[in-house]
Amino acid sequence: MNEIDAALICKALSDAHRLKIVKMLTGGELCACKLLEAFQITQPTLSHHMKVLVECNLVTTRKEWKNTYYALNCETLTSFRTFIDSLNCSQACQKKDCCQEEK
């Protein structure tokens, strides 16, 4: 995963509703109607949130008759987690004077 893709996911997850949706989807695929029940928002607002999550490839969608089902894209989530896990402080930065200017 590159920095641009990671930034898009971070932006998508910066909204509390979308973060809750992702958390709900960790339990498996859900119909939009079930997601809507968990919030006090309108269907168009839910659609907007889902569009953001789908556009950053964190969530997949499938239609079945009149219903839309959403699921986590595990490949993208795993790549994002690996990217975040790679952001470690080096031993040098753990010292108190790491970022202080030389005197």
Give a quick precis of the structure:
The protein has five helices and three strands; from the N terminus they run ααβααββα. It has 103 residues and is of the alpha+beta class. The protein has a three-stranded antiparallel sheet.
Q: What does this molecule look like?
A:
This protein has 103 residues and is of the alpha+beta class. It is 50% helix and 14% strand. The chain contains 5 helices and 3 strands. The protein has helices at residues 3-13, 16-25, 32-37, 43-55, 74-85; strands spanning 30-31, 59-64, 67-72. The protein has a 3-stranded antiparallel beta sheet.
Write the layout of secondary structure elements.
Elements: H1 3-13, H2 16-25, E1 30-31, H3 32-37, H4 43-55, E2 59-64, E3 67-72, H5 74-85
* Main sheet strand line-up: 1-3-2
- Annotation field: number of helices: 5
Helical content stands at 40-55%
Principal-axis shape: elongated
* Number of beta-strand segments: 3
Question: What is the averaged pLDDT score?
Answer: 91
Radius of gyration: 18 Å
Structural class: alpha+beta
Uncertain stretches of 5 or more adjacent residues: none
- β-sheet strand percentage: 5-15%
Termini, distance in Å?
39 Å
Task: Sketch the topology as an H/E string, one letter per element.
Answer: HHEHHEEH
Main beta sheet: strand number and arrangement? Answer: 3 strands, antiparallel
Any descriptors?
single chain; 103 residues; alpha+beta; three-stranded antiparallel beta sheet; 3 strands; elongated
